[in-house]
């Protein structure tokens, strides 16, 4: 059986590529399984500083594989495995960047929203098509709703209307939408910036961004002070401070960017 998801590493960037163009990179059982395996490998590989989620073919991801969903009982639906996959991306200690040259639909938009940074061609399109086939965009709402502004979220979840990359950026789904010919350069701009950050600092910052904050400001300051002081005094923090004083790049920066 041909592999549907590929993984390669270069200059600290682990690229995971969806390669199932025959069904528009739909989230089939095989694709889900391979995607999870490559995410595990990327997170366990010290040579990987960040992850780029990319695709071959004209479509980034069409959502769940509806052929596999037909006639299956509720406990046999592939969507049952999807929350763990989205959470794996959302909680990854390494930043994850989505790179879209083409459309995303339904569960594919959930993948985009789970990533820390999402960049697409302006011509890429998006839609929450679930209601139009009589299902609910429930699972993906967990990652999508924290990204989207409230009014567009209600509009687009309820209507299933297709929208382009420019609007996706305006409503918070994307960080950037650029002309198709500039997509590689825009993704590289983000990956270059991300590899300048300390690996432990990036992981801790990701965890901080998604953590529930105390109701009391004094408690919040106390927790954040402890976190800050720990990293100032830590090995990575001390290396960064020393590198700044010595006007050089820290040791964690890939050789290509020094």
From TrEMBL:
Native species: Saccharopolyspora mangrovi
SUPFAM superfamilies referenced in this protein's UniProt entry, alphabetically: ClpP/crotonase
Name of the molecule in the record: Enoyl-CoA hydratase family protein
UniProt cross-references to InterPro entries, sorted A to Z: ClpP/crotonase-like_dom_sf (IPR029045), Enoyl-CoA_hydra/iso (IPR001753), Enoyl-CoA_hydra_C (IPR014748), Enoyl-CoA_Hydratase/Isomerase (IPR051683)
NCBIfam families, per the entry: PRK07827.1
Family affiliation: Belongs to the enoyl-CoA hydratase/isomerase family.
One matching Pfam family: ECH_1
């Amino acid at each position: 059986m041909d592999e549907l998801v590929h993984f390669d590493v270069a200059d600290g960037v682990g690229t995971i590529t969806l390669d199932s163009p025959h069904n528009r990179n739909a989230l089939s059982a095989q694709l889900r399984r391979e995607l999870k395996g490559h995410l595990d490998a990327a997170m366990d590989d010290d040579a990987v500083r960040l992850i780029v989620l990319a695709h071959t073919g004209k479509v980034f991801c069409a959502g769940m594989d509806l052929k596999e969903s037909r006639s299956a009982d509720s406990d046999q639906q592939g969507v049952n495995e999807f929350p763990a996959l989205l959470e794996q991306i959302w909680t990854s200690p390494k930043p994850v960047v989505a790179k879209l040259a083409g459309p995303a639909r339904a569960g594919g938009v959930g993948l985009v929203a789970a990533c820390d940074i999402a960049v697409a061609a302006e011509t890429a399109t998006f839609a929450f098509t679930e209601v139009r086939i009589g299902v609910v965009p429930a699972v993906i709402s967990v990652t999508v709703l924290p990204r989207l502004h409230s009014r567009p979220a209600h509009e687009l979840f309820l209507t299933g209307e297709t929208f382009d990359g420019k609007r996706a950026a305006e409503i918070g789904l994307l960080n950037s939408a650029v002309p198709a010919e500039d997509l590689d350069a825009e993704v590289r701009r983000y990956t270059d910036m991300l590899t300048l950050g300390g690996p432990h600092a990036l992981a801790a910052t990701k965890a901080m961004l998604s953590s529930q904050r105390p109701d009391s400001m004094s408690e919040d300051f106390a927790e954040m002070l402890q976190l800050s002081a720990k990293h100032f005094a830590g090995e990575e923090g001390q290396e960064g401070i020393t590198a700044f004083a010595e006007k050089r790049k820290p040791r964690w920066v890939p050789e290509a960017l020094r």
